[in-house]
Amino acid sequence: MAWIFLFSTIIFQNTSHAQSLSRYQSARRCMGVTWTVTVFTETLAEAETAITAALNEVTRLEKILSDYEPNSELCQLSASAPTQCPKQISNDLWEVLVQAVAWRDRSSGAFDPTVGVLTDLWRKARQTGQMPSPEELSRVKQSAGPETLRVDDAQKVSLLEPNMRLDLGGIGMGFAIDQALEVVKNNGISIAMIDASGDIGVIGKPPHSNGWRIAIDALGRNSGKNNPAFNNGFAINLEDASVTTSGDAFQAIEIGGTRYSHIVDPRTGLGVIGSTGVTVIAADATTADAVATTLSVLGPDVGCQFVDQIERCAARFIWKEDGQVRVRTTSQWPSQTTDSLQNKTK
Question: Rounded distance, CA 268 to CA 7, Å?
Answer without folding.
Answer: 42
